[in-house]
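User: My collaborator sent over this chain with a note saying "see what the structure looks like." That's all I know about it. Can you take a look?
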Amino acid sequence: MPIKIPDSLPATAILESENIFVMTEYRAIHQDIRPLNILILNLMPTKVVTETQLLRKLSNTPLQIKVEFLQTVTYTPQHVDSKHMESFYTTFEKVKNRWFDGMIITGAPLADVAYEDVYYWQELCQIMDWAKTHVHSTLHICWGALAGLYYYYGVPTVEYREKLSGVYPNRVLKKSSPLFRGFDDVFLAPHSREVGVLEEDVLKVPGLELIADSEAGGPTILKTTDSKYFFALCHLEYDSDTLALEYQRDLEKGLNPHVPCNYFPDDDPSQKPVVRWRSAGQLLFSNWLNYYVYQSTPYEIGGHTGK
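Assistant: Without extra context I'll predict from the sequence alone. Here is the result:
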């Protein structure tokens, strides 16, 4: 899928160097189709890295996508140039009267903070509430998934005795789901979290279904029966070195982390990780876009044709 993003976005040059189709503004406006409008609420501190990871996954099907990035205004990011945020990010106030085909809410390093104590929690709740009526389908990732499950359904978060970090096998529980078309029955996916949810708490919620899990971390991917919300507790968008960088960061903080499981060859951090989740990651995002956004979103979403 050609993605329509600003020419000066740092991810643009990276994606083009990887032979990923990035569409210019001129070419986009001369195609007689309505692009899918996708909003990404990027809560990760590594903004540019996360932008690139997600855009890479959204770029491999034959439709046109217009991607916009959303930031919170109640918290100012500390790890990115303010000019980058001013140039490439919008705010809820500017989009609240618009409609989107899809939205992605990313993770955030907030596992040790109660939801109500998160600085931008009220703003996030406002955005999630707005998404009920203004977004056709929303994909929540990791902490964003936990926050969504808690906000929408009151599913509690449980803390692990030690951080779940590594590349783990995950079972597809609903093989008939279009989300898993092309998947193996068991797929590998990176996990990086100190918390999760319990299967019994998920199964108590009417309209919520568990469609993939892992022996190590329990529920991995969930969705609502109406396919409006998806919750992925794994990180299929991660780059090859993301877990390594997180491991090094935790070492430098003196946290004495375990070597990420099933990630470095022979569990040796001096060796280069081998990626074994890239195809599953591409399928997950492409299937979500195709079957749950493009195939079912109305052409005139919110009364706007896009032409």
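A starting point for your reply to your collaborator: The chain has ten helices and twelve strands.
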